[in-house]
Amino acid sequence: MHQVARPTVLGGDNVPADVLRLIEETERRFQRGEPAEALAILNKSSSKSPWISNAIGVCHLRLHDARSAQYAFQSLASDGVYLRPDVPAVFRLNLALARLESGNLIGFAAALKSVSPADCPAVTKYREVFRRWRRSLSLGERLRFAFTGEAFPPLRLDFPPGELW
User: Fold this and answer.
1) CATH of the domain at 56
2) Beta carbons within 8 Å of 7's beta carbon, 6+ residues apart
3) pLDDT given at position 101
4) Which residue, of 30, 58, 65, 112, is most buried by count of CB atoms within 10 Å of its CB?
5) Which of 25, 49, 50 is closest to 39 using CA atoms?
6) Cα 9 from Cα 136, distance rounded (Å)
7) Most confident among 13-17, 101-105, 125-129 (mean pLDDT)
8) Closest of 121, 131, 124, 64 to residue 98, by C-alpha
9) What's the confidence (pLDDT) of residue 138?
10) Distance between alpha carbon 25 and the CA centroid of its chain, in Å?
11) pLDDT (tens digit, 9 = 90+) per residue, 40-55?
């Protein structure tokens, strides 16, 4: 099978050309606001590539299906308890976003902290949203978040969640 290298995007992984084409088609569908169509295309693929699993999870994020997104990313980025440092950082970032989407803000913050901007530049925009949100909280709201993990007002992203690479 022909391999296409995407070192600056995929951390040096060699990604099969058919997988790369599917990810690029997913990206085009996202740009047109069609995550459900992207998911349908990805679900027809027989590929077992973790990049396809990641793209499927991002589709679920964009469709606001937190449970399915978390399921997709949990197996990619976690060993069940701990985040796996040996996987691409974007997988850990997307797991953080699935946790956010499911209302687990403490889990979101912990997973977000595990992602270095050097490994995944997209993390910067999510950290900025989180920083702005924390700054907007009153002292009482910050204390409630720190001690209970409950968040009001909720953290909202002002852009579609999830990163393909």
Assistant:
1) 1.25.40.10
2) none
3) 93
4) 58
5) 25
6) 34
7) 125-129
8) 64
9) 93
10) 18
11) 999 999 998 999 999 9
